[in-house]
Predict the structure.
Amino acid sequence: MVAHAAMPDTFPALVLNADFRPLSYYPLSLWSWQDAVKAVFLDRVNIVSEYDRCVHSPTFEMRLPSVVSLKTFVKPALYPAFTRFNVFLRDRFTCQYCGCREDLTFDHVIPRSRGGMTRWDNVVTACAPCNLAKGNMLPSVAGMMPMQAPDRPTVFELHRNGRQFPPNYLHDSWLDYLYWDTELEP
């Protein structure tokens, strides 16, 4: 994977846990340069890598951190929160009925009007046309079965899926800590 040469104006810092793994892949765990500098001064992080850019006051100069690691390990949650974004990420931003990747919504497999609950095992990503076509019908009646059975993912599964969608910008200093699945196109 080739990192983009142009640096954004914000100079974000990649945040690693104490075990040198990113706190999150999608969205990528980034802090603004201001938050990274503050964490350095509060002795909460170690600087792993720096940009060539410096910030300074009348009496102090410091290179901006490009990668920081937490000094204290943060135990990741085993299960992620149920959110629309996390449902899309679990389903790899793909309609579970037709495979489309545009105009995404989420669909209750067992419609709410028929007692279906809004939870991991009953909600899938669906494009708007499929969602409208299925309406309030059961999958067997509509002839529309999801490609994969919906379930509650672990945080690790979402991280794995997130690695299929690398961000548009990756600084060279981050590449040793990020492992993207570049064979699959988003």
In short: Helices lie at 33-41, 84-90, 128-134, 139-142, 155-162. Residues 61 and 106 are 50 Å apart (CA to CA). The first strand starts at residue 13 and ends at 16. Confidence is low (pLDDT under 50) at residues 1-8, 181-186.
